[in-house]
Write a structure and sequence with these properties.
The chain has one domain (4-172, 203-256, 289-300): Vaccinia Virus protein VP39 (Rossmann fold), CATH 3.40.50. The protein contains 15 helices and 7 strands. It has helices at 4-12, 15-22, 41-55, 73-82, 93-101, 116-119, 137-141, 145-159, 192-202, 211-219, 232-247, 251-259, 261-266, 268-273, 281-287; strands at 63-67, 85-90, 106-108, 124-128, 165-173, 223-230, 291-300. A 7-stranded mixed β-sheet has the order 3-2-1-4-5-7-6, sandwiched between helices. β1, α4 (73-82) and β2 form a beta-alpha-beta unit. The relative contact order is 0.16. Bound molecules: S-adenosylmethionine. S-adenosylmethionine is lined by residues 2, 7, 11, 27-29, 67-70, 73, 89-92, 95, 110-112, 128-130, 133.
Length: 301
């Protein structure tokens, strides 16, 4: 799985730039437009929060575990708008510091190893955009991907009561995914081989499930599927809106961009890692159906 240093690279490096662009508790996961792209990004993110909270029956007093909580957008929603209590977990120190500064109960903790002995059990659990990081390329190559997901569902099983619900959304590989051997950072720019190589560099330690079926199968002994929908097209729109916000002028933010220039000039690996500012590998992968994105609601049986 991705280690804390990997997540710190992906999320702590951009912490300040992200908050200056998206707001203190911005979402860093696909929004829910349901195809209505006249909605603003903020409206579509709120629609997502509402959908999740309704699907999990989160109400006043509910005790929720927000795994992989990012900058706590969903935690903020359920605490402020539903009167729930929430514990958020992240592996990025920068995110945890920002969340705590903003008054949210968020700690740095690997959510895949939580047990009831740590914080008790929960009425509902979310993991919005976290599963992508749970299996590394090496684990996948060693044939361990399903074991990783099965172990994770066992963790969830122990933390929920019978009938308790779990929501997750995750990117998945899709019908046009390439064989691993064809992924190549030196391939033609913008080609599937090239964007997949960029993605691996942007998200070190992370590999995706092969379709929602793989996740649903791994959940089976413990959970039944309540609902499933693809958010692929909504994610393409989300990324387009993010890119506008990342570019929008803000003196402090542009100063931070400038401070990256020396490293950019001297470090080839870093140049690959931040090539995402020019082309969004995720967006190309969604457009070419190399990847899809799924929202899944499960219930413990
Ligand atoms: C794409 S962001 C999603 C953040 C947030 N849920 C949202 O929707 O904005 C992925 C998050 O997963 C967290 N993460 C990845 N692996 C984790 C793990 N094993 N334990 C806890 N958090 C993890 C990262 O630290 C980051 O906060």
């Amino acid at each position: 799985m991705a280690q804390q240093e990997d997540l710190d690279f992906t999320y702590t490096t951009i912490d300040k730039i992200f908050r200056l662009s998206m707001g203190e508790t911005g979402d860093y996961s696909g929004a829910k437009y349901d195809g209505d792209f006249s909605m603003s990004l903020e409206e579509a993110q709120k629609a997502k929060h509402k959908f999740i909270a309704d699907s999990l029956n989160i109400k006043e007093g509910s005790k929720v575990l927000d795994m992989a909580c990012g900058w706590a957008p969903f935690t903020r929603y359920i605490v402020k708008e539903r009167g729930a209590t929430s514990l958020g977990l992240t592996l990025s120190q920068g995110q945890a510091d920002a969340c705590q500064k903003n008054g949210f109960n968020v700690i740095v903790r690997d959510c895949r190893t939580v047990t009831p002995a740590d914080y008790g059990t929960f009425d509902a659990i979310t993991c919005i955009g976290g599963l992508e990081h749970f299996c590394s390329v090496e684990e996948w190559r060693a044939g361990k991907q399903e074991e990783v997901y099965k172990n994770f569902f066992k963790v969830l099983y122990d933390l929920l009561p019978v009938g308790g619900r779990y929501y997750m959304q995750t990117m998945t590989f899709s019908k046009n995914m390439l064989p691993f051997e064809e992924i190549d950072i030196n391939a033609e720019k913008g080609s599937a081989s090239h964007v997949l190589a960029l993605m691996i560099k942007e998200f070190p330690g992370s590999w995706l499930p092969y379709g929602p079926e793989m996740v649903i199968d791994c959940a089976k002994p413990h959970f039944k599927l309540i609902s499933q929908s693809s958010g692929r097209l909504d994610y393409i729109e989300t990324i387009g809106q993010w890119r506008k916000k990342f570019r929008k002028f803000n003196l402090k933010k542009y100063w931070l961009y400038l401070s990256l220039v020396p490293k950019l000039l001297t470090n080839k690996e870093f140049r690959h890692q931040v090539a995402v500012f020019k082309v969004s590998p995720n967006r190309v992968c969604f457009e070419q159906e190399i990847m899809d994105h799924y929202r899944l609601v499960f219930e413990k049986i």
